[in-house]
Automatic annotation (TrEMBL):
HAMAP family: THF_DHG_CYH (MF_01576). One of its GO terms (cellular component) is cytosol. It comes from Anaeramoeba ignava. Gene3D superfamilies: Leucine Dehydrogenase, chain A, domain 1, NAD(P)-binding Rossmann-like Domain. The keyword NADP applies. SUPFAM superfamilies: Aminoacid dehydrogenase-like, N-terminal domain, NAD(P)-binding Rossmann-fold domains. This is C-1-tetrahydrofolate synthase cytoplasmic. CDD domains: NAD_bind_m-THF_DH_Cyclohyd. GO terms for molecular function: methenyltetrahydrofolate cyclohydrolase activity; methylenetetrahydrofolate dehydrogenase (NADP+) activity.
Amino acid sequence: MTAKIIDGKKIAKIIREEIKQQVSDLFQKTGAKPGLAVVLVGERKDSQVYVREKKKQTVALGMNSFDAILPDTISEEDLMAYVQKYNSNPNIDGILVQLPLPKHINEQRVLDGISETKDVDGFSPLAIGKLAMKGREAMFSACTPLGCIELLDRSGVSIEGKHAVVLGRSNIVGLPVSMLLLHRNATVTIAHSRTKNIGDVVSQADIVIAAIGKANFVQGEWLKKGATVLDVGINAVNDKTKKKGYRLVGDVDFESAKKALGPNGLITPVPGGLGPMTIAMLMKNTLTSFQRKMG
Ligand code: GUN
């Protein structure tokens, strides 16, 4: 028997339905709706797809969608002016600047410019800094890390006392998810590209979060039977049998992992795992921001 699949698509749909209901209830009470502003600079195809999906879901959940689709020649000053305008617009509860930004723009400066109360991506140093501190609550945590915790909770996986091995130390996933797991009383090991004997480290894990950005990196033979594996990776690999010429795979070698984990193991697929959860968490953060504003 192989591991059970955690269906991120299905769980994200349930969460979206919950949010939609809450948005509708709040609208009945207040006559107001949450608003999310999305800023896209340039014409990267992947970013266009993400932004389109975020806007679509914002509207589908009954919220107001604002956007700025800007040329990649825009100056940092002009981009900052958009952020400032959204900061001071009372109808906007969340601001998301899609990354990466063109090279001539200082990404950190732009992220620093987003008001803490509207930073629904949780990418600012203030958000990550507070997340790192005991007893300080960040206004928002980053969406993929939140999605990981939510998937564990909704799949009945307890976190407290477990050994979680996080592969990757990025500001967007590895670092914040490690801190969230720590706040939930897991024992956390952060492994990365320079870690020695990484397979041995992974073999100790009850929970594996793979966010290292390498296709099929985690091998089934590394995994402990009965462990839970969340695969955050999205990697395109050449596949001539597909219309687009490629297919998406995660950071985990899915087939060997599924076998090695055994019947008590759990694993997320790619696609259909963390991807839909990330957007659902963005919607949840936007709703939370609106609720805070309305008091
Ligand atoms: N680029 C890739 N993923 C993300 C994300 O979650 N948020 C933003 N703002 N940019 C991204």
